[in-house]
Each structure stands twice: as structure tokens, then as C-alpha cells.
Design goal:
By secondary structure, this protein is mainly alpha-helical. The protein has two domains: 37 residues, no CATH class; 31 residues. The chain contains three helices and no strands. Helix 1 crosses helix 2. The radius of gyration is 21 Å and the shape is elongated.
Length: 83
């Protein structure tokens, strides 16, 4: 048996030509938003507005806080298991 078929609609490819400088700019802007370049271009083309980067900034803060909480839990577990 093979893998079950995906329920997502099939995707098609759309190619565009850009200079190396433009490609770098697109990739940098996409990275700032936390999106892949293709998702960034799709959002810009379809919605016609800048992508909100506050989501990415908030995600970074949340990941840092989650990491600190995880470290605290590990320390508690280590202390509980030492006896």
C-alpha cells in the first residue's frame, strides 16, 4: 500500500525572473517575517500589502520563554529524581 493521498489541492508552479539583488531582498524580507520566500511572495501578490512581522517577533519571544520554562521543569525533575 502506498501513502494516503493528501487532501490538499494540487499545487502548480509559477516562475518569475528576478536579479540576484532582488532575490536577496525578497529572501531577507521573507526571513524577517518568518515565512518562506514563496509564501511571502504569494501573500504580497494576493493581498497586495506588507506582511506583518509582529507575529514573527512575538513568536521569538514566546520561544525564548518556553525554553526557560522547559529548563526550569528539567531542573525540578532532576532534583526530584536525585533521591
Amino acid at each position: 500500500m502506498g501513502r494516503p493521498k493528501s487532501r490538499r489541492a494540487p499545487r502548480t508552479t509559477l516562475s518569475i525572473r528576478v536579479s540576484e539583488r532582488e532575490r536577496k531582498q525578497i529572501e531577507e524580507k521573507a526571513a524577517v517575517t518568518g515565512m518562506a520566500a514563496s509564501a511571502y511572495i504569494r501573500t504580497m501578490a494576493l493581498e497586495g500589502e506588507n506582511v506583518d512581522i509582529t507575529i514573527h517577533e512575538n513568536r521569538q519571544k514566546l520561544m525564548h520563554e518556553l525554553s526557560a520554562i522547559g529548563n526550569n521543569i528539567n531542573q525540578i525533575a532532576r532534583m526530584a529524581n536525585t533521591n
